[in-house]
Amino acid sequence: MKENGKNEKQKQITTDSKYIQQHMANERTLLAWIRTGIAIIGVGFLVTNLHFTMKSSLTKLGDILANIIGVASVVLGIITIVVAIITYIQKVNAINNQTFRAPRHTIILLGIFVIIAVVFGIYFAIL
User: Which of 29, 36, 116, 117 is the least crowded, having the fewest Cβ atoms under 10 Å away?
Assistant: First the structure.
């Protein structure tokens, strides 16, 4: 009889499999950022559509502001998704090389999102 160990294929441990929990957390973070980007794009469409369906309050300044917010939201949403993908790839390499450091850029990006939310608030206050 042959030994079980010789008959079975030896499992090859990859670098990714050593840090499976970190990689899965990184993937969840990527998906959360993608959802955030899609939500930002949706808010842009929502603001533009709400503005132009409210015929009684159309002003030239309001039209321009609604268009700027709509375009800026779409652009910001796309940038968010692209940055999320780039960050994901960088984190995969950092996790595998054990050189991961907590990102400070994320805090700055979230601060920008807060500023945009304030702009949306001002826009709705003007209406």
Answer: 117
